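name: query_chain
kind: protein
chains: 1
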Amino acid sequence: MEDFLRLVKGAGLRGQLRNLYNLYVYFWRFALWKAFEQDPSRGGVLCFITPSSYLQGPAFAGMREHIRRVADRVYILDLGGGSRGAVKEENVFNIRTPVAIALVVRYGSEDRKTPAQVLYHRLRATDREGKLKELEALPPLEEIPFQEAPKGWQAPFVPEGGGEWAKWPKLTDLFPWQHTGVEFKRTWPIGPTEEVLRERWEALLKASPGEKPVLFRETEDRLLTRSHPAILSSQPLPPLATLGPGNPPEDILRYGYRSFGRAWAIVDGRVCGVPCPPLWHTRSGRQVYLTSLLTEPLGRGPALTATAWVPDRHHFSGRGGKDVLPLFRDREGQKPNLAEGLLEFLESAYGFPVSPEDFAAYVYALLAQPAYTERFAEELRRPGPRVPLTKDPGLFREGVELGGYLLWLHTYGERYAQGRTWPPQGRARWAKSPSAYPEGHRYDPETRTLRVGDGEVRDVDPEVYGFEVSGFFPVKGWLGFRQKRKAGRRSSPLDEITPPSWTPDLGRELLELLWVLEKTLETYPRQKELLQRVLEAPLFTADEIPAPTPEQRKPPKGKAGESQEAETAEEEREGNSGGRMAQPILLSSREAREAQGGSGEPASADAGPG
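structure:
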């Protein structure tokens, strides 16, 4: 395994290592050694059907390089079948993890300096029966219409998008520092109101020594008896076990929990498993956090969302990884997270100044819409959005104006205000407030009525209620997170502490969410039309614009950077000693049970709705 791990560490992807500690990867490593390395002078053949995360996941870059070094040719038959991600389809097995068949061949060549050729083909069928029929009807190997994957040692085992798409700059090259969002590893420190979180905190401090570990939900890295540095200042905090009632937490702040869904969080290094200090140390009144799915395919809806508050790991769609793109690398907003020289290049090309906010607004106007994910659905099967960057100054200005308006909406008036008045007035309105704290909600599309407990919100369009971000539904998630027994996972009895009654502030926040989605939907036709005109006009290719430096891809230095090193080591440790391991197809008793009709894998700890 060290051959796989070393290459990932060298590429600056230590935080991804926990994804490698997976039984199917161990079987791959043993089989590669047995077939190709035990006697390097001989040829060999290896054939597996396993989960397909190794095809393009960042954590598997070292595994892909090793396969390319020991083999001469690799055939990949992608069967798809993921039901946990944004794009759902049936699997050939009764599991939720996409799978692929790999045929790895070495002819006995001694050349280990030339990467193996990787040939890829994906089944067209999306249902189980269709896939099995397609497999039965496959022609001989040499007649299957394989496509060649990129030749780089660590490149994905899937082809690059063809045509003009492949020439456009990647989103991750324009915003070179990407970061994982915050992961608490327990649900109770995130709540609907600041008051509820203070009650939960105080209940923990008042509990008996025997009750505290259960209420807190101790984990290997977060124990009541252990001291941890503060998130905001990095100063040491006393262990929670030494605190009596009345001692405050480090802070309680607004939190970017889900797309369009604000929450509150106890920002305290003693309760947060993966606090991501660089995100906190760079927050400011100018900072904007863009989120997407950068390492898995996007589904329906926008390819980007935004928040003014430090985002959760699963902010974009209830799942996520290294998917946060901050606009600035510093608290002062003087160091944009943009490729070095990009703004100066654009100023020269357009003939007018371009600010970091302008550039982010242009990108947002094009990518934060379903027309983008629909038009490039095939290209986006390989994760990683690309940006059509116009050469037309007028089109760029239009994008800045439209994207700025959307970012004002999606940050709830905290950014891009420019004289606009918050909130935007929409059609949805309360006809009756809930008389008690709601236990659930229902929606009637015929009357366009949203019932929250015994309360009613009128004039809620079906498109607003059904608004989707890659499988996540913001209105359903917002209400599910705030009902008396919240939807999704609960980690502690402290989760049961909710507001005693429905408050005017909660009612106002729900209306603001509905109004934001109304106005967003009204803007989609303009965005679609702008995207079409941008695509018809001349575009910059990735080769024409400045590229980021390796240093720009790293988290900011200083306290944040120092903390990040410990944080990635912590993630690596979790993967090696206690992280959930996806099981290999046909080799695990649990997967064997699933293949006979058992349940799928559980969702991640913080991936509930909200």
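note: DSSP finds 17 helices and 19 strands in the chain.
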